[in-house]
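User: Continuing from earlier, I have the next pair ready.

Assistant: Great, send them over.

User: Here they are, in order.

Assistant: Folding the first of the pair now:
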Amino acid sequence: MSTPDPIASFAEGLDLPLAAVCARLRAIIDANLPHAASKLWHAIPVWFVGENAVVGYDVRKTGVVLMFWNGQNFKTPGLEASGSFHVGQILYTDPAQIDEALMASWLGEAGTNIWDMVGERRAFIAKQKAEKAKAMAKPKAKPKAKPKAKAKPKAKAKSKAKAKAKAKAKAKLKRKTGARKK
């Protein structure tokens, strides 16, 4: 007993034109990327070179969307940019719309111009771990306290009052002695 083909199962139950588009896309992808491994990934057919997704398709209300994970960086024109990553895509509603020569060109690029999403993800995670380790290694700086306003000691206030009184007495004495000399 053979195991069911998950990619063939994906197209089962679709309207005939969409199922025919899926079958045509699969045949062209398999012929042009014989070294790629295919599987259902996030519930859609996707072909991988190594650990990296390179091409896949999904059925939407408007038709079948063929996606190339690094399609925005291809030299061959015809793909529309999609999302915030490198995906380039094209929509098909009928198998007659598929240009096999154009698709073969895209697939040639997909097999060699690969976005290393696995490597980027690993590098991103390693960077996050390093930053976290660095933050944990540093002792936390204590927040600087605001300088407190210095209260004037009472002794200084009293000494100022004494100095004023002394100065007044001296001035008074000078006036008295000065008045006697005349």
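And the other member of the pair:
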Amino acid sequence: MHGPGILFLRFLCARGHYLLQSMIRKSLLLLSGLFISLAIPAAEPGVRAQFVGGTLPEIKAKSKAKLDLTGTETLIFTLDHSELRIPYSKIDTLEYGQKVSRRYAAAILISPVLLLSKSHQHFVTLGFEDTGGKHEAVVFRVEKGDIRSVLASLEARSGRRVEYQDNDARKAGQ
């Protein structure tokens, strides 16, 4: 037969074990959340883009870049080792077009069914006046998921309407 003292001690030991397990679980959860938050890089403003070409010889074609449209006065095009700043007020041409092509390589390598699908590349052309008063132009490619927000931001900030190259571009851009 067990006395009330022994039953109380067993209760305290069982309760202490439960509290210890709970504290360990919470600590592990907290540490895993910390590691996950450190592993995820901080999101920088802007969208991924690729510089395709233009009148600026100092920028290499097919350079990877980041297009930042969050500024109220200036568009910032960040390249690997340089940065292009274009004041929205200096933009005088805004054009959108797309290149549509069949996926021949994927059809040969993966499945002939892919011949029925098309790949779309989205291009934005900006005409602007540089600080010396010279008219310049840049062409960049934007991912499918970003093109509508890029066009809307450029229209809103520059006050210029987007000129579409054709009806397919008009449908995709709106």
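Worth noting for the second one:
The helical segments are 4-39, 104-109, 147-158, 167-173. The longest strand covers residues 91-102.
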